[in-house]
Structure formats: C-alpha cells, structure tokens
Amino acid sequence: MGLLSDPNRRRALIGLLTRLNAPICVVCYMAGVAWFMGLAFEPFTLRTYMSENAMGSTMVEERFPAGERALATGREFAAHKKKTGGMPVDWLVKTMQSRGLEVFTQRFSRRLPFPDEDKERYMVKGTNVYGILRAPRAPRTEALVLSAPCTAGDHNNQAVGLLLGLAQYFRNQVYWAKDIIFLVNEHDLIGMQAWLEGYHHTNTTGMDWSPLQGRGGSIQAALSLELSSDVVTSLDLVLEGLNGQLPNLDLANLFYAFCQKIGVLCTTQGKLQRNDWDSVSGYSHAVQTMMLMAMKQASGRPWGDHGLFLRYHIEAATIKGINSFRQYKTDATTVGRLLEGMYRKLNNLLERLHQSYFFYLMSSLSHFVSIGYYMPAFGLLGVILLLRALDLWVQLASPPPRTEDGVVDAEQVSSPGVLSVLTPLAVVLTAIAVYTLLPPATRARVFYCNPVCDVRRVSLCLLKAADGSGHGAGLEGAEAGGRALPGRAAGLHRAHQLLPGLHPGSHAGARGRLRHAQRAKVTRLQRLGDRCGSVRSLTSRSSSPPRRVLSAFVLVVLSPACTLLFSVFFFQELQEMPVSFLDGWMLYLSVISQGILDHALYGSLVYPLVALLVYPCWLLFWNILFWK
Amino acid sequence: MKILGLLSLLATHLSANSVNIEENAGQFFSSGHTNNWAVLVCTSRFWFNYRHVANTLSVYRSVKRLGIPDSHIVLMLADDMACNHRNPKPATVFSHKNMELNVYGDDVEVDYRGYEVTVENFLRVLTGRLPPSTPRSKRLLSDDRSNILIYLTGHGGNGFLKFQDSEEISNVELADAFQQMWQKRRYNELLFIIDTCQGASMYERFYSPNLMALASSQVGEDSLSHQPDLAIGVHLMDRYTFYLLEFLEDIHPASKSNMNDLFKVCPKSQCVSTPGHRTDLFLRDPGSALITDFFGSVRKVEITMETVNLTDPIEQVEQNFVNEDLQKESYSYVDQLPVSEIIHQTLAGEDAPGSIVAVGGNGLVMPPVFHFYFTVTRHDVATRQEEPD
C-alpha cells in the first residue's frame, strides 16, 4: 500500500504533523532566514562571467577622443534649458541634425490622478527628442538605445552633453550593424513611458502622445545615462526595473568587464566592493548590498529610466556617475570610452541577450546568486503555510459532529455576520480616516489641501486600481482583482441590508463612489467571513483576553502599514543615510502616494497587490482573532 | 696526349651525364600524380568566427601561390566576413594583426558561399555526385592521378564537425566518402588537414589507402585561437593554421621539404594543443612525399642538352606490328539501356549476366544499371590509356 493510502501510516504521519507542527514551522522559518542570509557569504556565490558568445572574449580598442567637447555641449544645453525653462527642443533638434542623425520629436501629456508631491501639478506635458543613427550598411531591423533624461535644474547636463558627443563620434564609424537611437526624454519616467508606448504602438496607461515619425527596428538593448558632474569618482549600475524586473545578467557582466578593462571604479547599489569577505564587516556589507537589491525589487518601482524598457523584453540598465570625495577622478573621455566599448560589444550581438540569468541577486558587481539558489529560502517560508494549512485541515476533518454544526452555523452566519464584519470595517474606516486626516497635518508634503477632493481622488485611485487596470497589458493579477471586484459587489444581495448603517461613518460625507468602494470591500470581507465561518470553532480555543491582546498587538505590528514603515527606516539604514522619525514618516507617506502614482502611471503591481491581497488577508486575521 | 685525355674525360663525363639524365628521367615520375586539386572548407558563420574564414583564405593563398590554379581549387566559405556589417575595414579579411596581411584581396574565387556550404554539398563535391547543371567551378574533377588537399576548419568535437551552426558531419561519414572516392578512383593520394577542437577524432575512422591526415588537436583538447586584433575586435587566426601559414611561406615550388617537416609544425609549446597526424594508410614513406606534392601544382622542368631515349618500350610494339590487326580491339558504344523493356519486365532480367533475381521494381532495374556502369567505366579506362595527361 502507498504511503498515504495505508491508514496506519497515514495516521502516524498525521499524528506527527499535528504534534510537531509548531517546532517544524519554527525550524523552517529559521532555516529560510538563515539560507537567505547565507547567500551573501562569498563562497556560496558565483563569480560573474560573460555567457554570450557573440559579445565575446576579445575587447575592442576604444578611441573616443572628445570628452571635453562633450562637456562644453553639456554646458550649452544647460544654458538653453534655463532659457526655455524646460526642454530646449529646437536647440536639441538643430544640434542632433548637425551631427548627422535623423531627428524626430514626440509630444505627450498626462493627467495625474492626484497632484504630485513636490511639484503639485495635475497635468504633465512634455516633448521627447530623439535622433536615429542609421547603420551604414545594415538593414534597419535592429536598434540600440542610449538615453539621457532632461531634468529640471542643474542635473544631467553632462549626460546630455556626453550623449551628443558620442553621437558625433559614432556617426563617423562604419562598423555599426544596428541603428542607434539617441533619446533625450523629458519628465524622466513619464516621457520614457510615452516614447516606449509610441515606439511599440501600445497604450497601456492611458497616456496621450503623438505618434512617432521615425523608428529603428526592434530594440536589442538600452542604456540610460545619468551624469551630473564633469568628473566622476565612480560609476553606479542600476538594474532594478518596473515590478522588480531585472535585465539579463550579461548586461551587468559587460559593464563590469569594461570597468575592469578601463580601470574605472564601479559600484552597484551605491556600495563599493570590498575584498574582505571573511570578516564580519565585509560579510555584513555584502548582506546589505543584497538586501538593498531585494528591497528595491520589492518596491516595484523603476529605479532609473531603464526600468520601463524591461517590460518590452529589452535589456536595459542605468549608469549613474557619482562624484564623491575621492582622489582618483575619471574624466568624461574615459566614461565615453566605456560607453563606446559597451556599444561596440552590443553591436556584435546576433540575438537578444538570453544566455545568462534573468533572475538573480548581486552581493557585489562580481558575485551573484541565481534564482535556483535564492528561491529555496522562500520555498521554506512557503512550506510553513502549507504545514499550517494541513494542520487546520486535519483538525477540521477529525471531529464528525462538529462539521454538522459548522454547516448549520454557516447558514446562520448572517446574524453574527454583522458583528464579524463591523470590526474590520471599523478598521477600514480608520484607514480611510487616516488618509483624510493627513492633509491638514502634512499639506505641503503629501497631498494637496482639500481633504474632500483627496478622499475622492484616493477612492478614485482605488477604483481605478480595481477596474482601470483591466485594460493594462500584462497586469493579470490586477485585472483579475479588478474584474472580480464589481462582480462580487453585484453578486451579493445581503450587502445592501448591512450598509445603511455605514453612512455616518464616512468622513467625507455621502459620496456615492466612496460608498461603492466601501461596499466592495465589505462584500469581499463578507465572502471571506462565510468561508471562515467554520474556522471560528478552532479559534475559540484562543479566547483568553491576555493572549488576545498579545495577538492583537502582534497583528498591528505585522500590518502592511507598519511593515512598510519599518522597511522604509530599514532601507534608509541600509543605504547608510539614516533618517529621523519625522523625516522617515514623511518618506513613508510619500512612498505610499508614489506607489499609487506608479500604479496609475506605469502599471506597477505592488499597490494593487497590497490593497487587494495583503490588506484583506490582514483584515481577515482580525476577524479570526475577535470571533466570539 | 693531354687533349686525348681531356676528350676521353669529356666523353666519359657526357656518357655519365646521359646516364644520370636517364636516371633523373626516371625520377621525374616518381610521385605518381599528374595533377593537383584542393578542397578548402570553412564551416562556421557569424562575425565572431572570423578566424575560420581567415584560416581558410590563408591556406587558399598559399596553395595558389604554389601553383594550383583556381580551376583546381574548390573554396567553400560559410559566411562573408569581408562584407559583414561589423567589419571596420570592408572588403578585407586580415590574418595578421595590425592589418598586415589581407588574405581576401581581389582575386579570390569562392565556389560555395554562405548557405551553400552544407554537409550534403561537401560530400557531393568529394564523391562527384552533383547534378548535371553544376558548373565546372563547383566540381571536383579529379582522376586517379590527382593528389588532393582537403582542409577543414570550424568548430568541432569528438567525432564531428559542425557545419553552419545547424548540422554536423561525422568522422564515419567522412571516412565513407573517402572510400567512395577511392573506389571511383578519384584520387591518387589525399592529404587531409583539419583545424578544429578535438580534430584528431575526425581521422580516426579512415580506412581507405593513400590517405595522410593532420589535425590541430587531440581528442579532449581544444584548438585555440591566436591573436585578437583590437581594431576589428575579433580573433584573426587559429594557432595551428597561423604557424602552418608561416611554414608554408618558406616553401617555394622547387623546395624539397617533405611531410616530416609538416608534422613538426606548431609543437605543443606554440599551439597549446597537441597536433596529431596519421600516416599508416599512406603507402609511400612520408619522408619521400614532398610538400609541393599536395600544396603546389608543380611541373618539373629541367633543361638538358642531352637526348633522353623514352622510346624503348615502343620498339617492342613495332616488332609486333604485323600481328596488330589480330590483337586490335575494336571500340564501340555500349547498347543504350532498354528502359521500356526493363519497366515492363515482370521477372528477372535476362540481359544481366550473373545478376541476382530480386523482387520488386528496384531489383529489376539495378542489375542492368550495374552492368551498364561497368561497361562504361571499362570503356573509359581503355580510352584513357591512349592519352597521357
């Protein structure tokens, strides 16, 4: 007989499961955490190596000469930018044309769901300017992109200058097999999203843009440049993109190979590489780098202009020039040579980068762990859920008379159902109240002044998150959530009877849409409450007040909101820029609003995931906790 | 007295010389081959395999310099490096860094190019089974007095050579192709050189006579590339062929270097891999085989004032002139193949002597075809003896 079909053996296994459940879970948890921490230990990592044969083992000789001229162009760009107060479109078009590129512009405009935190604007309008360098002998089937953002103020002027200098140098070479597109985008990510949508003829985020007049074939790789000083001491590579997506590891390997060849100091996550991996501080440095990468991926926002390319399966990275207090400075010519070398190597590609890993964590630029090594840690944490579920299932199945009670009770759940729903509902209301109470306290930083308008906007966002994301390409999770929500709201009739009492609860007054949002949340909870009706029998065991208070406290600490607050502080610590509590609080609020904004603008999935999955599950725990 | 002595000395000297020249005349035809062919194949495509094309082109250049004309060279290049978009010097293929030597030039005749370089085409060239529409430049029109040089380069492994990144030729196939060539008397002696990783595995299975093989590395070893050019950005040559080219640059049409010198090219210290060779199937002593027997097309010319008597054998025939009418063979064309009779035949073919009765249409057709083939070849051989070439 098989292991599970033999009743004796099964009973023995089940006995083991129920007896040792808690210890096994604890062991699994500690093993998972220890595994993850151990990943940063250098003997467990692999050295990075170039996997793509076409990018080859041989280096090319870089001959870019014109760094100083590039800086002068950058200064000119800065002057024109200040004069026009935005993007100097005409000057850029004229300069690119004089360098022999085919120049095109694209206008775009976007209405933000709520005003931006630091610029307090509703409508964002801008122009992207891009020039295409056609490959002299090749057909126009493939392209590479070099982009530099046009930011207001004194940032990134040298990046644009270097971009134009490289354009002039590249134009004189005959060995290009792909078109090279030099892009200067306005308003950072919004402009980049408009350009990418125009290039690929998709419209996922509801932006308004003029169609692109010139195209270059399918884009094989892209680099975004951020350079704000004439000399740099190190170059930082930013890999994390939208929804935590990463480019192919070969792009990072290419960057590192050229850094080593040219002798430029290169970093990732802003942290310098250390050689003493066997000391405690060296190991903690590696752990910090890896944790930073994991947290940046978890935030789901693109950490550079390159982040939006990844959705289109274009390998992209951002190179940031950092000027800190070190003796050895690298000038613009050397940075230009590094980029020239990278582009010559990318030119040799015959297919998209696919030989190396797509999922990895880097503890430094020369060491990485792939998904096969870090997934078991999360697997161990997932096993805990499985064990708990099995334990519950076994306990549910064991006493026969109780199941009848459970069935009967489920039908009568409507009357205790009101009580069970009120508690989480009160919490929901407090959460919304938190949103509404915030503006008077922090008006200049987070939201615009009118609380009523903001609540509407926030709820609009929630709704938009729910059903507006339905037309987003590739947002399957949010789509499912979005489509499910109105369906559930419509399908349950009992909800109407429960809600009349809610009117006075809403701070903003009787706004129909707000009620709709709340109703949607309530009905979901109702359904969840139905399902866990049979579970209450189990939780009645843990009904002693002090234990309940302790559980409630733990639940508050582990709430999504508190976890986010702690992680904000932790993130700042990891970056070696610790903040005071008030600054941290401001940062926390901006993180929340930025998350909502990211979802609305680029289709980031973190906000809908938290709002529709994590948050209701957490509310359900309250339901379980306070069941009578 | 002195004059007499001098005259006698001169007479003996002259007679000795004439004897020497007669001996030398014997040495004229010592190698047994009368024409030279070369089949040079590069099997890899893509820009990063630049060095394989450069390898093949440098051997082509040497072979042409030593006298083999383009009509006797079948050059197969799987990709066009000279006009590749990534080539910073278009229309050139360099074999030495700093662009010292352009092996592409403007008199290169590529016979099989690009996607035409396949295993099937290569084997068809070797065995001669090409469709009638194939032009002469794409055929290996060798005969039983031809010495053929076959040079292969590309990516290989244990027992195979990769063609075009999509198919392979195995060592068994290659050995069988050479056996077919031997059976059809398509070569006198054959020199096989291969420059790939684990190249020695390719000649392990040869079993036909008069084959000599060289490889750049043993089984389990990789053949390495020689030097990159930083302006072009690729490796330009493989080590073995680089040193082979250096060796061949010293060979001129009259040089007497033999195969033993060729075996010493690129020792392990230079090549990192261990070159290997195989001579057990070669009927002559490798020391007596000259480099120019395979790499060049050498016509030996010696100017002499003496008369060499080459007519001795013919005198004997003259004595039998009277009986010639009786011994003379009359030649005529073989009967046309009676196709219609064959198709409508139901049982064994009565025309084929000693044929095996086979069931089925194919069996009926095969014996008469066989019979036809043999009569044709016998006819050819008979006529060829009339015209020394």
Automatic annotation (TrEMBL), chain A:
SUPFAM superfamilies, alphabetically? Zn-dependent exopeptidases
Q: Name one GO biological process term.
A: GPI anchor biosynthetic process
**UniProt protein name:** GPI-anchor transamidase component GPAA1
**Chief place of localization:** endoplasmic reticulum
Any coiled-coil regions, as ranges = none
Keyword annotations from UniProtKB, A to Z: Disulfide bond, Endoplasmic reticulum, Glycoprotein, GPI-anchor biosynthesis, Membrane, Transmembrane, Transmembrane helix
The compartments listed are: Endoplasmic reticulum membrane
Q: How does it assemble?
A: Heteropentamer. Part of the GPI-anchor transamidase complex, consisting of PIGK, PIGT, PIGS, PIGU and GAA1. Interacts with PIGK.
The pathway noted for it is: Glycolipid biosynthesis; glycosylphosphatidylinositol-anchor biosynthesis
One cellular component term from this protein's GO annotations in UniProt: GPI-anchor transamidase complex
User: Which organism does this sequence originate in?
Assistant: Gasterosteus aculeatus aculeatus
From TrEMBL, chain B:
- GO-annotated biological processes: attachment of GPI anchor to protein; clustering of voltage-gated sodium channels; detection of mechanical stimulus involved in sensory perception of touch; GPI anchor biosynthetic process; protein localization to cell surface; proteolysis
Active-site positions, per UniProt? H155, C197 (nucleophile)
Report which superkingdom the organism of origin falls in. Answer: Eukaryota
Pathway(s) of this molecule: Glycolipid biosynthesis; glycosylphosphatidylinositol-anchor biosynthesis
Gene3D superfamilies registered for this protein in UniProt: 3.40.50.1460
Q: Which GO terms describe its molecular function?
A: GPI-anchor transamidase activity
Q: Respond yes or no to whether keyword Signal is given for this record.
A: yes
InterPro entries recorded for this chain? GPI_transamidase, Peptidase_C13
Q: Of which family is this protein a member?
A: Belongs to the peptidase C13 family.
Subunit = Heteropentamer. Part of the GPI-anchor transamidase complex, consisting of PIGK, PIGT, PIGS, PIGU and GAA1. Interacts with GPAA1. Interacts with PIGT; this interaction, via a disulfide link, stabilizes the expression of GAA1 and PIGK and links them to PIGS.
**Could you tell me what this protein is called?**
GPI-anchor transamidase
From which source organism is this entry?
A: Gasterosteus aculeatus aculeatus
